[in-house]
């Protein structure tokens, strides 16, 4: 196995192959999304978004080359500095950014616009890896949990100022990494129950059914538990908390600004606001749903061509694929993504250092979150939040930031033998 | 590698991917409602309305054509208006109309066009055309409405209007949709299948803003519209226009028929209305006011009004009597006013004299012999047998049931049967003395002006008729008119019997309607009076001319005009002159008719 000793062979070409496959499929879908039959131009035309995306892809390849030739220790050493720089930029964005769609989230550089919040993702991931690489760091300890949450919470707070709820939500994906690194299971069970309870609260319009259900759960727990006063008190307290939660959730939802309230309610009933938020979801579902098993064929999607879905080349790019390639196309694309993610899990697990593994899981979490939430929102399973589909959606900021995010990990992985693990 | 918590992460990724794929399968494969919604989004079905067929008169003068009107369409999303007042002045509408119209359009669709101002006339369009480019989100769609160059024959032609719910339900072919225009009365209604043509459909692709993006499937599913077929009416438009002029200020009917063919030359229901007011934007409003008018201009008198036939029926009685062998030219009866009232004339009279003098007692006595032929020894039964046999003969004259003209809503009138009298008086409880008023065309008898004109045609033809009709050719082809209009119908009366009738009718004019006599043309006619319990009797006159070779048979009713000769006969005479000579050489008679106003 002498050949495998060269650096070239230490790079994980499977992950890179999957990356380029996804980018390529995304690119041809962007062309379909902006394609105008009566004024058709080439996919390479720089005046349309598919041509521009090709520039982004080209520059992304440059970035990849830079990352791969850089010293692998650079990322470890620069992690905290990068984090601090991006937090400062984020802090400044609301003051000097350009306002688009009511958000000050963009910097204008000549004809290009960049979104700093996109790049903060990998900086935060590096900072978390740096913080947690120390073997004495223990997620079972409350103080250490707070430190990790602080690293995550700072950019979230700043992004909320823009305000960009979607991007802020993305940071919850770090909990996947925290889970892998030993965050206590009970937090996750608690969070899952809370999510379940929230969905039920919003789904069930008559609250008395809900209260009845909660009462039944309390009763069952009392019957099932050991009959001690301490247990009774605990279960009783739990019941009170659940009741208070459902009650306050309804109250909070009612107090939300109408557009956010609609984004939530539209999940359960698209007719809540058919021409507002409901329009996106309804039209997106029509586009995807009309694709059938095999799709209408490339560049044949009427909903895509005639602009029925807003933001189709960016956040709603999945509609193009769903309409023109059908369920089979969706199956292939989602499978490709799942294989890609599982490959990254495999890579993360083979790392010899905590830094690389933690960073790897951050990458997995971020990509998975974007992927799942983006598709879920196009088919009405999740509220409409403005987050892109990794490698697919049109846009330089998003493609660059995901590319940097991924290739730092691939770079680290290629040096896994050289990096001296500091013991687990 | 995948162990412990890393396995949980890997499985979670797979599970969520499966959830997404499952939901995708539901909406993409199992639920086809999204496909239909996508088609509704992107495929616009544009109906290409055919050109409705035209109607010409018998001399190929245009009676009905299609006039373009313009609908001003608005796309709410693109519409901007800075100076509302100027816009309203320009288009001649109230501000509130603009606001209501715009709101209605907005409620329909924000991005698709809907009508803002409907049916702008050619003239008005010409005036505003140049200003249209000043406004964004406005454009013009051309449609057409029916138009009538001579403003005549409204009740014969009928009108078109939006299809109503019950008509839609009855349309088993599912050809029509809500909002389609169909013929609602007259020729427009009866010949709807010929006039309407066939709709065409184009499937167009539109984008989210409703803007056209080409044909769906390259237009393979599109169909072209087929224009409606032109009709040639039997109406003589000049005669019709002249007749309507004569009927001004009167209430009544005129029906003129070409005896040899049954073609209706003129059909007037007075008071007449201008057919042009039942087209276009003001249809609803004008229809309402016509409908509320106490003179009932929409009531199509020639086929719907029913009156007792009066004295004119004596001719039918004479013919049946002759055919039965009961009357001969030499049969005489005294004018016995004890039986029934009469007016001053020599007595006794023979058949010729009876017709000429319209002698009531003559027919009272003659009719008794027709009815009571002593078939049965029981007087009651004998009367019943006689009446039913007589009724059969009368109905061969096209009386007592619908003639079957090519219009909807024709009434049949009534000729009483023995069942009717059984119902009124009880079986075996009525005899000749109960029903004798039938002898002079009174009593339980009703005929329409159309049936009366048809009688005149029968007398002219010496015993046969063709069902009166309004259309003589469809798409230029005379053989395509309904078969029933090509069938000769016989009354069962021998031709010979008509000579005496025609002579008597010619002679009758000098007695009862001297004004109607023409110098060069022999008119055979008979006056009548339709009794009107509600007021002044109706003046009735039937005639045909020239007696030697009849070209026109006519019936004129003038309601509340009193005894027959005055109004109806003069009107008929002028119409005969107009039709046969093409001009009027009796201005004083015309003046007399025009001045007679009997409505008020």
Q: What structural keywords apply?
A:
heterodimer; A: 424 residues; 17 helices; 68% helix; B: 600 residues; alpha+beta; Beta-lactamase; six-stranded mixed sheet; cell membrane (chain B); Beta-lactam/transpept (chain B); hydrolase (chain B); cell wall biogenesis/degradation (chain B)
Question: What topology emerges from the helices and strands here?
Answer:
The complex is a heterodimer of chains A (424) and B (600).
Chain A: H1 7-10, H2 13-34, H3 49-69, H4 73-96, E1 98-100, E2 103-109, E3 112-114, H5 116-132, H6 142-160, H7 165-170, H8 174-180, H9 185-203, H10 207-224, H11 229-255, H12 258-268, H13 277-289, H14 302-305, H15 318-349, H16 354-378, H17 396-414
Helix pairs in contact in A: 2-3, 2-15, 3-17, 4-5, 5-6, 5-16, 5-17, 8-16, 9-11, 10-11, 13-15, 15-16, 16-17
Chain B: H1 4-30, H2 33-42, E1 43-48, E2 55-56, E3 62-74, H3 84-91, H4 95-108, E4 114-120, H5 122-128, E5 138-147, H6 154-157, E6 160-162, H7 165-170, E7 181-183, H8 186-190, H9 192-196, E8 200-206, E9 212-215, E10 231-233, H10 237-246, E11 252-258, E12 263-270, H11 283-292, H12 301-304, H13 313-324, H14 351-357, H15 360-371, H16 379-395, H17 418-425, H18 432-435, H19 449-461, E13 464-466, E14 471-474, E15 488-490, H20 497-512, E16 524-530, E17 538-545, E18 552-558, H21 565-581, H22 587-595
Parallel strand pairs in B: 2-10
Antiparallel strand pairs in B: 1-8, 2-3, 3-4, 3-5, 6-7, 8-9, 10-14, 11-12, 11-18, 13-15, 16-17, 17-18
């Amino acid at each position: 196995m002498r050949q495998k000793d060269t650096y070239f062979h230490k790079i994980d070409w499977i992950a890179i192959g999957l990356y380029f496959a996804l980018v390529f499929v995304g690119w041809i879908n962007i062309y379909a999304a902006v394609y105008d039959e009566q004024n058709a131009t080439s996919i390479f035309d720089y005046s349309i978004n598919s041509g521009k995306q090709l520039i982004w892809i080209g520059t992304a390849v440059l970035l990849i080359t830079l990352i791969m030739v850089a010293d692998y220790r650079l990322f470890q050493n620069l992690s905290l500095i990068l984090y601090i720089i991006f937090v400062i930029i984020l802090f400044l964005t609301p003051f000097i950014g350009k306002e688009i769609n009511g958000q000050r989230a963009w910097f204008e550089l000549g004809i290009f616009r960049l979104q700093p919040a996109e790049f903060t993702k990998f900086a935060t991931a590096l900072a978390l890896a740096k913080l947690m690489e120390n073997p004495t760091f223990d997620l079972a300890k409350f103080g250490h949990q707070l430190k990790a949450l602080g690293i995550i919470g700072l950019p979230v707070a700043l992004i909320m100022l823009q305000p960009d709820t979607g991007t802020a939500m993305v940071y919850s994906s770090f909990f996947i990494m925290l889970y892998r690194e030993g965050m206590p299971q009970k937090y996750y069970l608690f969070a899952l129950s809370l999510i379940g309870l929230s969905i039920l609260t919003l789904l069930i319009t008559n609250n008395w059914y809900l209260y009845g259900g909660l009462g039944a759960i309390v009763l069952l727990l009392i019957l099932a538990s050991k009959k001690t006063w301490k247990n009774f008190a605990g279960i009783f307290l739990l019941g009170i908390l659940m009741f208070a939660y459902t009650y306050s959730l309804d109250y909070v939802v009612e107090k939300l600004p109408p557009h956010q309230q609609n984004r939530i309610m539209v999940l359960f009933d698209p007719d809540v606001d058919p021409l507002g938020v409901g329009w996106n979801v309804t039209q997106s579902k029509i586009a995807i749903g009309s694709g059938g098993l095999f799709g209408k064929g490339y560049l044949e999607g009427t909903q895509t061509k005639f602009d029925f879905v807003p933001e189709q080349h960016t956040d709603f790019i999945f509609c193009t694929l769903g309409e023109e390639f059908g369920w089979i196309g969706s199956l292939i694309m989602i499978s490709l993504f799942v294989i890609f993610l599982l490959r990254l899990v495999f890579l993360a697990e083979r790392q010899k250092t905590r830094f690389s593994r933690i960073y790897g899981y951050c990458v997995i979490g971020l990509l998975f979150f974007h992927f799942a939430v983006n598709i879920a929102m196009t088919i009405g399973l999740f509220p409409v939040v403005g987050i892109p589909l990794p490698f697919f959606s049109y846009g330089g900021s998003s493609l660059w930031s995901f590319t940097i995010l991924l290739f730092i990990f691939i770079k680290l992985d290629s040096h896994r033998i050289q990096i001296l693990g500091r013991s687990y | 590698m995948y162990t412990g918590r890393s396995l949980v992460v890997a499985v979670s990724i797979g599970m969520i991917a499966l959830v997404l794929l499952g939901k995708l399968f539901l909406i993409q494969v199992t639920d086809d409602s999204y496909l239909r919604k996508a088609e509704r989004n992107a495929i616009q079905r544009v109906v290409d309305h055919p050109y409705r067929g035209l109607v010409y008169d018998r001399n190929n003068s245009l009676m009905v054509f299609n006039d373009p009107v313009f609908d001003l369409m608005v796309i709410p999303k693109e519409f901007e208006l800075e100076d509302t007042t100027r816009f309203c002045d320009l288009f001649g509408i109230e501000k509130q109309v603009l606001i209501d119209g715009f709101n209605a359009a907005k409620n329909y669709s924000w991005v698709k066009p809907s009508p803002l101002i409907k049916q702008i006339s050619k003239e008005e369009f010409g005036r505003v055309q140049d200003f249209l480019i000043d406004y964004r989100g406005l454009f013009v769609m051309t449609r057409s409405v029916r138009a009538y160059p001579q403003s005549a024959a409204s009740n014969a032609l009928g009108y078109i209007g939006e299809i109503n719910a019950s008509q839609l339900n009855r349309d088993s072919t599912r050809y029509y949709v809500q909002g389609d225009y169909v013929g609602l009365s007259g020729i427009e209604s009866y010949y709807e299948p010929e006039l309407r043509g066939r709709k065409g459909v184009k499937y167009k692709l539109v984008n989210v803003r409703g803007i056209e993006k080409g044909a769906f499937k390259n237009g393979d599913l599109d169909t072209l519209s087929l224009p409606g077929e032109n009709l040639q009416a039997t109406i003589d438009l000049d005669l019709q226009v002249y007749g309507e002029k004569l009927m001004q200020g009167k209430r009544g009917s005129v029906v003129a028929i070409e005896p040899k063919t049954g073609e209706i030359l003129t059909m007037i229901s007075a008071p007449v209305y201008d057919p042009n007011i039942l087209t276009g934007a003001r249809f609803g409003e004008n229809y309402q006011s016509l409908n509320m008018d106490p003179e009932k201009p929409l009531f199509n008198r020639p086929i719907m009004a029913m009156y007792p036939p009066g004295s004119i029926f004596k001719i039918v009685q004479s013919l049946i009597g002759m055919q039965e062998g009961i009357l001969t030219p030499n049969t005489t009866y005294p004018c016995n006013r004890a039986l029934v009232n009469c007016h001053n004339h020599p007595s006794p009279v023979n058949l010729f004299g009876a017709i000429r003098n319209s002698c009531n007692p003559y027919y009272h006595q003659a009719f008794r012999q027709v009815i009571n032929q002593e078939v049965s020894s029981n007087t009651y039964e004998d009367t019943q047998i006689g009446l039913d046999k007589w009724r059969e003969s009368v109905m061969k004259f096209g009386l007592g049931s619908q003639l079957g003209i090519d219009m909807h809503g024709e009434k049949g009138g009534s000729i009483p049967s023995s069942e009717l009298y059984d119902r009124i008086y009880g079986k075996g409880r009525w005899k000749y003395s109960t029903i004798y008023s039938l002898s002079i065309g009174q009593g339980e008898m009703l005929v329409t002006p159309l049936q009366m004109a048809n009688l005149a045609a029968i007398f002219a033809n010496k015993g046969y008729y063709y069902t009166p009709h309004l259309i003589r050719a469809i798409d230029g082809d005379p053989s395509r008119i309904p078969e029933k209009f090509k069938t000769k119908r016989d009354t069962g009366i021998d031709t010979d019997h008509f000579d005496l009738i025609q002579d008597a009718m010619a002679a009758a004019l000098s007695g009862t309607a001297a004004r109607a006599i023409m110098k060069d043309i022999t008119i055979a006619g008979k006056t009548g009076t339709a009794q009107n319990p509600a007021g002044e009797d109706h003046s009735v006159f039937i005639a045909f001319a020239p007696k030697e070779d009849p070209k026109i048979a006519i019936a004129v009713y003038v309601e509340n005009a009193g005894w027959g000769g005055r109004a109806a006969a003069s009107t008929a005479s002028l119409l005969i002159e107009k039709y046969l000579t093409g001009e009027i050489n009796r201005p004083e008679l015309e003046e007399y008719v025009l001045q007679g106003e009997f409505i008020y």
